[in-house]
Amino acid sequence: MTHQATNDHIDTLLHESRVIAPSAEFVARARVSREDYDRMYRRSLDDPDGFWGDVAGELHWMRRWDRVLDWQEPHAQWFVGGQTNVAHNALDRQVAAGRGDKTAILWEGEDGEVRTYSYSELLREVKRAANALTALGVEQGDRVTLYLPLIPEAAIAMLACARIGAVHSVVFGGFSVSALADRLGDAGSKLLITADAGQRRGGLVGLKANADEAARNTPSLERMLVVCRADCGVPMQPGRDLWWHEALAEAGDEHEAAPLDSEHPLFVLYTSGSTGKPKGVLHTTGGYMVGTYLTTQAVFDLRDDDVYWCTADVGWVTGHSYSVYGPLLNGATVLMYEGAPNHPDWGRFWRLVERHRVTILYTAPTAIRSFMRQGDAIPAGYDLGSLRLLGSVGEPINPEAWMWYSRVIGGGRCPVVDTWWQTETGAIMLTTLPGAHPGKPGSAGLPMFGVEPAIMTRDGEELGPDDGGLLVIKRPWPSMLRTVYGDDERYRKTYWGEIPHVYFAGDGARRDADGYVTVMGRVDDVLNVSGHRLGTMEIESALVAHPAVAEAAVVGRPDEVKGEGVVAFVLPQSGFTVNAGELRAHVSREIGALARPDAIIVADALPKTRSGKIMRRFLRQIAAGKSIEGDTSTLEDPGVLDRLAATPVA
Ligand code: 6R9
Predict the structure, then answer these.
(1) Which positions are annotated as binding Mg(2+) (predicted)?
(2) Which of 13, 17, 390, 644 is the most exposed place for a label (fewest CB within 10 A)?
(3) Which runs of E-coded beta strand occur in 188-248?
(4) Cα of 124 to ligand 1 centre, how many Å?
(5) Looking at the predicted structure, is the pLDDT value of residue 7 above 50?
């Protein structure tokens, strides 16, 4: 794969002018028309209390709120004084509305096993799990960490926490022991819910073994609940470990959802920032519920007979908001698939669509680009005629991939929605609505209800059409993060302290004359590898933890499939030689396979200013195979650049 090709993509993005209108048929049936959008958007800004009060009123509250919003910058409280329960709204409310027999979760394991849960069955399991958690001593406000494969128990455990007011912290099953231990320790979790193993590409991922090792360094941890997924005979520590199925079998199936304050914490989810330590993004009950409820129905044009598939793992925010909470709050049938997109072959996703008659597919550009490379013949071998809407999330989608997705997967009949949002925003912020707006390949689109975006300079000056700048949001919205868990100062500084009085997203963007926002990528030291956020500092800390490495600098380089690839410049410790394969394995162990460097450059020095600051700008140019541009005069040793450019890449 050449870097030139990716640069061509960026170039076409800049000159992209295609406008793809939804079909008249789609428009005629759409839940939100263009007129609806205009009217609703206007109202959401002019009368936010009325707008959000009406949306929240569609859900069940044990006590109605006194005030819609209390904004003491940078802290928002939504639906103040109200009491509700997200799990009750996702389950009991659906059963009461006559959806008891409707399929809530339709799950397919990597080995092809299928399990389904109707709304009544899911509710019964969640009630049992809630009782089991309570029996284990989990109380309102306690943190519970989940380290699970993508199996129904993951959703059940999340909903059980929500039901009793425990705060879940899901750690992606692909993260390593030390990444898990950091997140367990930071959250101070009492309970860890894991599985013996997960299935991935035909093999087993030993989650329980990782959990045991992580638990050793986590004093707060009291108990471990273990789902038997693979039946692979893991050791259980007496007094601490308990099988999930045994705990649930002993638990009763009567349970009333706890009435929780609207601002009661719902979950913490760790995400990478520009410093070494991941941030625990905290979301609360009422606002998150209202935000994911509304965006799921509007953006995905959801109706009762849809089979909705968001391919994200619950370890990421997309899996929280759009594999679990948003669709269940709308009474949808949700498909969950445990395994890899290319197992046992590249037809797997399309077989899933065909087999389960999927109507809405929501996935990431990195997956779309990988499928595209395999050619049109593979998807053409399956009946994808059930699909009616396609979505994209996680990173910028290049126009070629957008067009391919629309043409080959959508058969030219499905609108494509490119949704921009973040762990921090909780719900979709920028997108087109499928029956209201034409798509512009490469551009996310217009603001969702209540979202007031702007493009600004570092100094807070607002820029006009087509000027590139920083993406900010000018007012609070219901599903916004409330703080960084245990570090409110970091919350203030990172999000509301960069530019006064606006939320700083950390992305560069521009807006065209029609108001469509094109997001160009991160402006901080955060990489986006296959749609997953990784801090360069996190990877650098992992690298220098290896005895052979004295110093390390990590940058991204354009990658045709992954969006960005990881390039590591390392200085060996004197007396050691660096073995690239061994270093890659080390990073996998320290963080997870997703952080493995694609290229390692062993250097004798790094380009530093006289004050000792690494000039990453130059490293990025070298990593991308470009010639050096810019002022090199502040470098302590300008010769280092030529030496680096001539160094072989491992
Ligand atoms: C939902 C999610 C957030 C970062 C975000 C941006 C990038 C996400 C995008 C997109 C362009 C889109 N991003 N969606 N960039 N177009 N449609 O991915 O959350 O993991 O926190 O990542 O991802 O850079 O700032 P998260």
Answers:
(1) 544, 546, 549
(2) 17
(3) 191-195, 198-200, 203-205, 223-227, 241-243
(4) 35
(5) no
Pairing, β 503-511 against β 469-473: antiparallel
Q: Judge contact between 163 and 191, C-beta under 8 A.
A: no
Q: 76-94 as b/e, with b when 16 or more CB fall inside 10 Å?
A: bbbbbebbbbbbbbbbbbb
Query: Mind listing the pLDDT tens digit for each residue in 468-501?
Result: 999 999 999 999 999 999 999 999 999 999 999 9
Nearest to 624 by CA among 555, 562, 561, 570: 555
Q: Is 507 marked as binding a ligand?
A: yes
Q: Please say if the pLDDT value at position 3 is more than 60.
A: no
Cα(163)–Cα(155) distance, integer angstroms? 12
Q: Is the pLDDT of residue 6 over 70?
A: no
Work out the angle at residue 525's Cα, subtended by the Cα atoms of residues 524 and 528, and round it to the nearest 5 degrees: 95
What are the residues whose beta carbons fall under 8 Å from the beta carbon of 382, sequence distance 6 or more? 347, 350, 351, 353, 354
- Which pLDDT score, from 0 to 100, does residue 630 have? 85
The dihedral built from the CA positions of residue 427, 430, 434 and 440, taken in this order, carries a sign that is negative
Structure confidence at residue 15 (pLDDT): 64
35: left (phi over 0), alpha (psi -120 to 50) or beta: alpha
pLDDT of residue 13: 56
Q: Is the pLDDT of residue 8 over 50?
A: no
- Give pTM, 2 decimals: 0.93
Q: Which of 611, 632, 610 is nearest to 619 (CA)?
A: 632
- Is the pLDDT at 186 greater than 60? The verdict is yes
Section 131-140 average pLDDT? 98
Q: Is 318 in the pocket of ligand 1 (CB under 6 A)?
A: yes
- 56, pLDDT greater than 80: yes
Q: How far apart are CA 589 and CA 535, in angstroms?
A: 16
Q: Quickly state the pLDDT bin for 10 (edges 50, 70, 90).
A: very low
Pick the atom of ligand 1 nearest to 533's CA: 20
Dump the DSSP string for 521-536: EESSSEEEETTEEEEH
Secondary structure in 3-state letters for 405-431:
HHHHHCCCCCCEEEEECCCCCCCCCEE
- DSSP states of 46-105: H-HHHHHHHHHTTS-EEE--SEEEEEETTEEEEEET-EE-HHIIIIIHHIIIIITTSEEE
Nearest CA to ligand 1 atom 4: 422
Could you tell me which of 219, 205, 222 has the C-alpha nearest to residue 136?
222
How much of the chain is in helix, strand and coil states, percent to nearest 5?
35, 25, 40
Distance CA 273, CA 294 (A): 28
Q: Is the pLDDT of residue 46 over 80?
A: yes
Whose tokens are 């990528």? That residue is 521
Closest Cα to atom 16 of ligand 1: 396
Give the DSSP letter string of 146-163: EE--SSHHHHHHHHHHHH
